[in-house]
Design goal:
Elements (H helix, E strand, L loop, with lengths): L12 E5 L4 H12 L3 E6 L10 E4 L5 H15 L4 E4 L14 H26 L4 E6 L12 H21 L4 E8 L8 H4 L2 H9 L9 H12 L10 E4 L7
Parallel strand pairs: 1-2, 1-4, 2-3, 4-5, 5-6, 6-7
EC number: 1.1.1.-
Keywords: Oxidoreductase
Protein name: SDR family NAD(P)-dependent oxidoreductase
Length: 244
């Protein structure tokens, strides 16, 4: 289930941003295991297991985003799947949030998703493709202390819908995955906080965090031919948080 169908004579090519983080590394491994040629994109340019190639990427730069897509297409002949996984977080009360911190998160999470998607459009427009954005249940429900992260993820969810409508004519599907808390470097600061985690897990009907592997499986399904008529949607991989 969820297998991609390769075009004759070539593997499908996936570009994964934020590829060396907890979710990103699992995305690379999952997609490679299902037949993709995976290009890992990150600030450090490292290549995680499963990735065939790595590129340097700074989401704050349109030039860097375009270069990552161009290097992928020049090296492997196409771009069939873009996974906009990279992101940053800044926790804290809104009244205390420095404007420059707010702007920095917006520039990476929201503007970076826009920049990469725009660059991918130019590579995919001739024969179609798929874009999967990493959102969050923080973009679906209000979580105190996470205003800036939630706002960017809510904006990504809406951007997903708009791009799905605009780009359907060139057969580019755009979807999103919204997990609840996932053990990763981004959440390392709260995973060992017993009080925080007890309160967090109490908001999840299924009672546990989401594994990076579960996020990767949802992304892979959305990119697959099994989801060929799915576009503009956000799959909440959240144990029921967003239905409460």
């Amino acid at each position: 289930m969820g297998e991609q169908v390769e075009a004759p004579g070539r593997a499908l090519v996936a570009l994964v941003t934020g590829a060396t983080g907890g979710i990103g590394a699992h995305l690379c491994a999952e997609l490679a295991a299902h037949g993709y040629t995976v290009v890992a994109a990150d600030l450090d340019g490292e290549r995680p297991p499963g990735a065939r190639h790595s590129v340097m990427l700074d989401l704050r730069s349109g030039e860097s985003c375009r270069a990552a897509v161009e290097e992928t297409v020049e090296g492997f002949g196409s771009l069939d799947l873009l996974v906009n996984n990279a992101g940053v977080n800044a926790r804290g009360r809104t009244e205390d949030m420095p404007e420059e911190v707010w702007g920095g998160v917006v520039d990476v999470n929201l503007n970076g998703t826009f920049r990469m998607s725009q660059a991918a459009y130019r590579a995919m427009a001739r024969r179609g493709g798929s874009i999967v954005n990493l959102a969050s249940t923080g973009g679906l429900v209000a979580i105190g202390g996470s205003a800036i992260y939630g706002v960017t993820k809510a904006a990504i969810i809406h951007l997903t819908k708009v791009l799905a409508v605009e780009w359907a004519a060139v057969d580019i599907r755009v979807n999103a995955v919204a997990p609840t808390i996932v053990p990763s470097p981004m959440t390392a600061d709260v995973l060992d906080d017993a009080e925080y985690m007890a309160a967090k897990l109490a908001t999840i009907p299924l009672g546990r965090a989401v594994s990076p592997r579960e996020v990767a499986a949802a992304v892979r399904w959305l990119a697959s031919t099994d989801a060929a008529m799915v576009t503009g949607h956000t799959i909440a991989v959240d144990g029921g948080v967003s239905v409460l």
